[in-house]
Specification:
The chain is of the alpha+beta class. It is built from seven helices and 25 strands.
Length: about 375
């Protein structure tokens, strides 16, 4: 090969290489422009002897995902609500025992400031039987408090602090809660670990728990946020920093001995709001009053005492000048229904009675000496 031919060959290779490079760059630019404009890019797959080459359209898009920074939301919620949370200490007077005077004891729980006037919402079982009350702020300082009112049946109570109000919690809307929603419990487990924060979800809504005292607490919010003794009365908070419930109880085991974990229950704040308003205004909650002492009847009780009904309440005493006495009810009568609602394992006496208001007239179905009769009663107010 002569030098002249060699130079011609090298020039041809350079031209061909440049052309290929230019084509690749041009194709890349076109593809980039199409991709940046969210235009489809056509990719031809190689054909085989038994198939026809089919264009495959692939849309390349840029996705923008808006996510909630949950950790930041939790931190901010705790910072907003935490200063309004207090530890509640009730001093319970001592009892006379066989060995002498037992000495005073204390009951410890949690509470939350719900107004600038110093009102604190907590559980009834935290302060029940107390003779004096004290609160411990989140910073460790202390102040005395007075009992404003309490309601056994909702397990709620209101105190009023004699000291300052460092913060007031914002009350949310518990009706808007959905299972799976993140919630935060703040309180003083065991009374020692003040303003402890635990996080979980709303496990369920509308739960009912039998108190073992002849009535159930209905409409409870179930959560797996860790709740322990001392958390009672503390707030359950959503990610917006709003109090959506008041923590009240936990279930550790069942009657069969099965051990449970993560079963906490809280009173919806919409329910609590109605109760606390009455407690602040009146010192008590207006409830319908019949004026009897009674023994609940279950199938087991009925079998043991050979009673003529499976469910109801057996009247053991009637209070003087009560609606029951005025209606002619007697000791030994068994109430089996209120209006059209039969008393059974899902309709306990008090829960059914509390569907009415003071002044309402109801028809009681009563079993008297084996005979079923109807008794008209006008309900009184408060005291059951």
């Amino acid at each position: 090969m002569t030098w002249k031919r060699l130079l011609i060959f090298i020039a041809a290779v350079v031209v061909l290489g440049a052309t290929a490079l230019f084509g690749a760059l041009a194709g890349g630019v076109i593809a980039y422009r199409l991709m940046s404009q969210n235009q489809p890019v056509i990719v031809n797959q190689p054909s085989t002897p038994t198939s026809v080459a089919v264009p495959v359209t692939t849309t390349v898009q840029t996705l923008t995902v808006n996510t909630i920074d949950v950790e930041t939301a939790i931190t901010q919620a705790v910072q907003n609500v935490g200063p309004a949370v207090v530890t509640v200490v009730a001093t319970i007077p001592g009892q006379q025992t066989f060995f002498g005077y037992s000495g005073d004891s204390t009951s410890t729980g949690s509470g939350i400031f719900i107004s600038t006037d110093g009102y604190i919402l907590t559980n009834n079982h935290v302060i029940e039987g107390g003779k004096s009350y004290q609160i411990i702020y989140s910073d460790g300082s202390q102040a005395d408090a007075n009992l404003v009112g309490t309601d056994q049946y909702s397990d709620l109570a209101v105190l009023k602090a004699n000291g300052s109000v460092p913060a007031v919690a914002t009350l949310g809307n518990s009706d808007a809660l959905n299972p799976g929603e993140t919630v935060i419990a703040i309180g003083s487990p065991l009374g020692d670990f003040k303003n402890t924060v635990t996080v979980g979800v709303v496990s369920a809504t509308g739960r009912s728990i039998d108190t073992g005292s002849g009535y159930s607490i209905d409409g409870l919010i179930q959560t797996d946020a860790a709740i322990n003794q001392g958390n009672s009365g503390g707030p359950l908070v959503n990610l917006a920093g709003e109090v959506v419930a008041i923590n009240t109880l936990i279930v550790r085991s069942t009657g069969t001995g099965s051990v449970a974990e993560g079963l906490g229950f809280a009173i919806p704040i919409n329910t609590a709001r109605v109760i606390l308003e009455q407690l602040i205004q009146n010192g008590f909650v207006s409830r319908p009053y019949l004026g009897i002492s009674y023994q609940p009847i279950t199938p087991r009780v009925a079998a043991v005492y050979r009673l003529p009904v499976q469910y109801g309440v057996y009247i053991t005493d009637i209070y003087a000048n009560s609606p029951a006495s005025q209606a002619g009810l007697r000791v030994g009568d068994i109430i089996t229904a209120i209006d059209s609602t039969n008393l059974d394992d899902t309709h306990e006496y008090l829960n059914t009675l509390f569907q009415y208001s003071a002044g309402d007239e109801v028809t009681l179905t009563v079993n008297r000496n084996g005979q079923s009769i109807q008794v008209q009663v006008t309900l009184g107010e408060s005291g059951v």
